[in-house]
Amino acid sequence: MEINLNNNEVAVRENRLGSVIAYNGTIKDFGESGCGGCSDKKRCFSQSSMCNNGCAIGQLFSIYDAAIVQHSPSGCASIAMGGSINDLLVKALGKSPKANSGFTCTDMTEQDTVFGAIENLKEVIIETYNRYKPKAIFVAASCVSGVIGEDLESVIDDLKDQVPVPIAPIHCEGFKTQIWASGFDIAFHAILKYIVKPAQKKTNKVNVINFAGGTSWNSRADVARLFKALGVEPTFLLSTATIEELEHLSEAAATISTCGTLSSYFGNGLEKGFGVPFIRSLQPHGVIGYEDWVLTLAKVLGKEEEAKIYLAEEKRIYQPQIDEFAKKLKGKRAMIAMGPSYSQNYARILQEFGMIVEHVTAWHLDVKYDDGNMPPALQYEIDHADNNYTFTVNDLQNYEYINILKKLKPDVFVTRHPAGMIVWSMKLGIPAYNVRDEYTSFGYIGTLRFAKALYYTILNKSFTNNLAKHVKLPYKNWWYHQPADTFLVD
Ligand code: SF4
Predict the structure, then answer these.
(1) How far is the CA of 97 from the centre of ligand 1 (A)?
(2) Which of 52, 57, 72, 78 most suits a substitution to test ligand 1, by most atoms within 8 Å of the C-beta?
(3) Whose CA is nearest to atom 3 of ligand 1?
(4) Tens-place pLDDT, residues 329-381
(5) Which of 3, 43, 126, 349 is the most exposed, having the fewest neighbouring CB atoms within 10 Å of its CB?
(6) For ligand 1, which residues put their CB under 6 angstroms from it?
(7) What is the domain range of residue 102?
(8) Which of 270, 290, 306 corresponds to the end of one domain?
(9) Residue 271, Cβ neighbours under 10 Å: how many?
(10) 468 and 420 inside one domain
């Protein structure tokens, strides 16, 4: 399905990309059958998951000077707590605390579901502007506003003379998709349609689509140093970006990303709608990914020689140290559970260390991206994973991956979000590592950092062993003997 920035809504991933939330097989089977047999599989029982409203709002609330109006019951607005993570990043970067950013909610009631809540929504938008003076306001739909058919476009049209900043509707009703990552696309569609302006000139900026990374390590400085060698400057998106920066994204020399799942719609939308080249490469995690990311960007910028010199110097310093830890990690067995892009990128890194990837679980799977091609990191694994590890797609269903962990008993479980997942593995006596910061293994220095952390996680098992000794999990023995696809049906 083509990207069309004139449309009010973007199609969800199931319809646009053929994405799935249920699969059980091996990585090679997946590559050979092109997901044959999995696209019509459903999960007949679901424990818990996330909704795309939270995903969209999480992105937009990280903008430095924009406000969110959540048109929903108050429960949906609990996502506002996530804003504190962004405040930490603002602080870490030495920026002044956010002053023109706010999160409000229309607190829809049962009565509103009968009579509608459009007038209340208008009042809340005006009050949000008067209170915070944001540079833009995003108005988010929810299941409740969606079910009663609230017309966000007409509200925004009515207010355009009273509120002197862009107001953008976010069509992120929770029920419209089972894939929360559709929320990324919905948020980015609003930015592309309502905020980004046509280019007046070209600049030496490169749009870097990332999450809120950079709080644990000074990784934004690592990116800036690399970019300086290539004669460009990064604009980090969306976290801590200003509305003014977003207005000028069309002027950039290129767009690049740390996560394929996050960036597919935004990167391809900037390319299709505004002519900004989107860098299609592996993500910059581990040595192979980093080199591919840097060299592909350099090629588009015409700076290949500069990139090779930069990489050679970094490699000279860090590769011998990486090799030392890779020797210690060689042969260790691992299971991975992360979002689709990160899971494939981390499978590659563990294989770079000589580890045996026994199993990969992805929270959903994009069979293709918005350019019509298979995600490069997934294609790489299909082509290079010699042991043809088992592969499942599972949207945060603990009961499924805990069976796999118990059966495989790997030396380490590597996961990313939610952070609480590592506890389940540790309670089984399996050490776990949480890739909390998205720049954990960025470049050579990050790869070394990750190799060290992984080695010491496997080496020092005392806390994991103690936890397992004193915790009784709720599962009975028969539960662990079920196959991983027990709850998948046609
Ligand atoms: S699924 Fe619907 S009701 Fe639940 S948090 Fe998301 S938008 Fe709100």
Answers:
(1) 29
(2) 72
(3) 143
(4) 999 999 999 999 999 999 999 999 999 999 999 999 998 999 999 999 999 99
(5) 126
(6) 51, 53, 72, 76, 142-143, 174
(7) 50-177
(8) 306
(9) 19
(10) yes
